[in-house]
Design a protein that fits this description.
By secondary structure, this protein is of the alpha/beta class. The chain has 15 helices and 14 strands.
């Protein structure tokens, strides 16, 4: 048990100490505002207040944890042990920065609540304006690294402290934006696709479409058996997020009203954990989200517990408030489509803190570190370059015993043998059973 002395108690303080010391480290905590009790306590302890009391560990607060609302400007970073940190405090503190305020700022996504932030055409926060990008730590889980450093500080004085042992995980996850390439589509979509291919002189695709519709060959997007075979050693029952939204400009999936579609999606639940992929328009219209949840329940007989936003459309706090209202317990949208890395600067799952209401929630957030299309379409990497990048990222996460989550799309990797081979190579290289 770790005793903490603090002169103030707020929802922010309760939340971030619980996340850092209990959720991440596995320690039991107790707070006190009694100086005599703190001084007489012989076990592990530290002081988180404005004044040092004696020879104890003293970590001076910056002040963010006893505020309300969003008042802090984007912080200026400085280097500590080669790491970019911020929220500087007095040099006599046992850390020259407030590690708890820093972590709260990053995992709460404090900066995304600012009225000055800019959004792209899809209403998404620009990675380029983030503190992590500007200070070149977007591709590393800075929070996880700092927590390891903090553990070492505590262990130097309290060597008997027992921290929870975590294990590295690679979690490949899949988005079904489009289930079938050719099957189960209305005539007007088939006609439109054929006309487009004809204008492009893409006769091979026309031939494939005809053979699929005649039942001579399998639809090219149905590659789930192959996907499962290649990840079964790293993830027993992978998560699949399915878009059940109405057809539109950014929602192109086959309609679940089609018996062939619903039958196939239902059959997938044998080998995959099925989750919801809220449609593009659902982020703007709650009624669309409610309709999609109902479709999911009718399909699988239960409400979805996991979700990931289509296009990673994530707006604070309303997206998460909507997800909480429909019973979602885990969300996997914390990432960027334009950059790889760690949007909240951590690879570990943590609970969402609603800054608008100043309250902790029971929605657990999982950060996605990379996406197939980002590596090839946005970053323009070769498969060799992309594999090296992910392997280096994985080596760091392995040292931190963290979680590395990748996003894959059946409709993206199915039509390209090089991309499919890349998917297999990543699964092989990140398999903890492979030497």
């Amino acid at each position: 048990m770790l005793l903490i002395y603090s002169t103030f108690k707020t929802n922010r303080l309760d939340y971030i100490f619980d996340q850092v010391l209990t959720n991440f480290m596995g320690l039991d905590l107790r707070f006190t505002q009694d100086v005599k009790e703190f001084k007489s306590f012989s076990g592990p302890k530290f002081n988180y207040s404005e004044t040092r009391l004696g020879e104890e560990f003293w970590f001076q607060p910056y002040g963010l944890l006893n505020q309300n609302g969003v008042n802090e400007p984007q912080p200026d970073c400085f280097l500590w042990k080669g790491l970019p940190v911020f929220f500087k405090v007095d040099d006599s503190s046992d850390l020259p920065f407030d590690i708890f305020s820093l972590i709260f700022y990053l995992i709460s996504r404090y900066e995304e609540y600012s009225p000055e932030v800019q959004f792209d055409m899809h209403g998404r926060y620009f990675a380029l304006q983030s503190t992590a990008y500007k200070n070149q730590f977007l591709e590393i889980p800075l929070v996880d690294i700092l927590i390891v450093q903090f553990k070492q500080i505590l262990l130097a004085k309290y060597p008997d402290l027992a921290f929870r042992k975590n294990n590295f995980q690679y979690l490949p996850t899949f988005d079904i934006d489009v289930l079938f390439a050719h099957k189960a589509k209305p005539f007007w979509r088939l006609l439109g696709g054929s006309t487009r291919d004809l204008l492009r002189l893409n006769f091979e695709e026309i031939k494939t479409r005809i053979n699929v519709l005649l039942g001579k060959i399998k639809d090219p997007f149905i590659i789930f058996d192959e996907l499962l075979t290649n990840v079964k050693d790293v993830c027993e029952r992978p998560l699949v997020f399915v878009n059940l939204g109405r057809y539109g400009t950014f929602d192109k999936n086959n309609s679940v009203a089609n018996p062939e579609v619903s039958a196939f999606l239902k059959s997938m639940s044998t080998n995959f954990k099925m989750a919801i992929h809220p449609s593009y328009r659902s982020n703007d219209k709650k009624s669309e989200l409610d309709s999609e949840v109902l479709k999911f329940k009718n399909l699988y007989g239960e409400l979805p517990l996991q979700s990931r936003q289509h296009f990673l459309r994530l707006s604070f706090p309303h997206t998460y408030q909507d997800l909480i209202s429909i019973g979602i317990k885990e969300d996997y949208s914390m990432g960027y489509t334009t950059h790889i890395g760690f949007r909240a600067s951590t690879s570990f799952p943590y609970y969402f803190y609603n800054l608008s209401k100043e309250e902790k929630t029971d929605l657990k957030i999982y950060s996605c570190a990379f996406m197939d299309a980002t590596l090839f379409d946005t970053m323009k990497l070769t498969p060799e370059q992309a594999l090296d990048l992910i392997r280096n990222m994985a080596k760091l996460i392995q040292k931190l015993d963290g979680v590395l989550i990748g996003i894959w799309h059946n409709s993206y990797i199915a039509d390209d043998k090089i991309k499919m081979q890349f998917f297999k190579d990543v699964a092989e290289k990140l398999n903890p059973n492979q030497k």
